[in-house]
Amino acid sequence: MGWFLTELFTWWNGQTMGTRFYTWRKGERVGTDEFGNIYYRTPDKDRTAGGSPERRWVIYNGYSEASTIPTGWHGWMHHRTDTPPPSVDYKPREWQKPHIPNLTGTPYAYRPKGSIVGADHRPRVTGDYDAWTP
């Protein structure tokens, strides 16, 4: 019963009932990434004759956090490439780095020197700055 209420009232926790129904009716599963996110697209028969682009979407494993989409899948989701990563033809570029999740709000977030939550203190002003006076 808990999953039913979660899908009915929350959009940030995986998928809603509307997304589940639409995926059931029109979705064609393309693949899964290393984080458990599942990727779908509309099959060719469901696209209009006017040439509307293929609709692509992801159902997140857990909270809906866009930074959990790896590089190859991001390119496919945004129609940069027509070849999804699990395909045999997919070859990552040499400049593509491994995925790093968004660390904002975690203890591992970047905190520059002088930050309020950082361990270091802000360096003293050296006199190279003069305050503006009207």
TrEMBL record:
Alphabetic keyword roster: Ubiquinone
Region Disordered: start-end pairs: 87-134
Coiled coil: none
Zinc listed as a keyword: no
A GO CC annotation given for this chain: respiratory chain complex I
A Pfam family that the UniProt record links to this protein: NDUFA12
BP GO terms, sorted: response to oxidative stress
Signal peptide: none
InterPro entries, per the entry: NDUFA12
Record carries keyword Cell membrane: no
Record-given protein name: NADH:ubiquinone oxidoreductase subunit
Species of provenance: Kaistia soli DSM 19436
